[in-house]
Amino acid sequence: MSDDPDPEKESSRSALRRIGRDAERKREARAKGDRGIWFGFGMFGLVGWSVAVPTLAGVALGLWLDAGFGGHGSLFALTAAVGIVAVAAFVPELRRAASA
């Protein structure tokens, strides 16, 4: 006989704990009620910064790479696109966090 726990049972327990935590967080959020307009403005600002900073960082990196390596705008476009894709991947995560 082995003392090792069943990985499937451990995975199920972990999932149940996570579901329980999520349910508790939702109950607490509902009990607090409306968070008000300032919470909304804060989330708006968070999403705005989450979009602006990676995009501007990509633009700055691209301009620096173009100046250093003579890319004539191609590296600028590439890094700006990478910044936009990073934002597109991050925004749904922010939405999930805000709705929890």
Jot down its keywords:
100 residues, mainly alpha, 3 helices, flat
Could you name the ranges where pLDDT drops below 50 across 5 or more consecutive residues? none
For the biggest sheet, the summary is: none
Structural class by sheet pairing and helices: mainly alpha
Q: C-alpha Rg, in Å?
A: 22 Å
Distance between the termini: 43 Å
Mean pLDDT rating: 77
Helix fraction bin: over 70%
How would you describe the shape?
flat
N-to-C series of helices and strands: HHH
| Beta-strand percent range | under 5%
Supply the number of structural domains: 2
Determine the number of helices (DSSP H or I, runs of at least 4 residues): 3
Number of strands: 0
Quaternary structure? single chain
Describe this structure in words.
- With 100 residues, this protein is mainly α.
- It folds into 2 domains: 1-33, no CATH class; 35-99, no CATH class.
- Helices cover 85% and strands 0% of the residues.
- The longest helix has 33 residues, at 37-69.
Structure in a nutshell:
The chain has 100 residues and is mainly alpha-helical.
Please describe the topology of this protein.
Blueprint: H1 7-32, H2 37-69, H3 74-99
